[in-house]
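Handout, page 2. Input:
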Amino acid sequence: MSENQRSKGIYLLPNLFTTGGLFSGFYAVIASMQGHFTAAAVAVFVAMVFDSLDGRIARMTNTQSAFGAEYDSMADMVSFGIAPALVSYNWALSGLGKVGWLAAFIYAVGAALRLARFNTQVGIADKRYFQGLASPAAAAIVVGLVWVGSDFDIAGPTISWLVAIVTLLSGLLMVSNFRYPSFKDVDWRESSFLAILIVIGVVVIVALQPALVLFTVFALYALSGPIITIRSVKELKMEHVVGDNDDADFECNKEEKKGDEPKA
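Output:
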């Protein structure tokens, strides 16, 4: 079987993980419609786990395929685009009328545009950074707020405007040009013992208060993008914040490229 034929194949194992993520996102929508908001929020985080595994499983088993990539993108749209928007709307935004569903819709559109842009940049973008907030991180902020509110018995309608702002900003950050660290350049194999310690520490901290810790971590990550971008440019321009420039003119990129040029 040629490499071309293999790339078009449908492989069971990685697509099972993708299906698990899709099911989690779908369940989140159903749970929120029934008023089970904690379960809905947790389901989106479960979808994040599946999403982080399917690609790794495909690479480990050498079963990457064009079908798998497209299927993963469609599943991500449900789990990190539609599901968080509807969970947020059902919990707090429905009482705001048009403002509420517009905030949820803008978030969903932001997720769709973010996923489409990511798909067009595969293989050409700087792997060390994401351009715009990744959709799983944006989803974690939106449903994380819902989870925190449910844990602390806060009624969604009482903070509906805060939820609308958070949902709207999360959607806009996804289509921004802010640079977010991807952590793909970290070689965990060379520091496996340290990685194990970090994982244990994270699990312990999250176990103390999972909703609050996860929401805080992802909210801080969302704030890191503007900070990293502002620090990496001499003068902040509109193209560094938003626009269709796939590789905004960052001064740090220029320096790195100069350093990579062969010397005479």
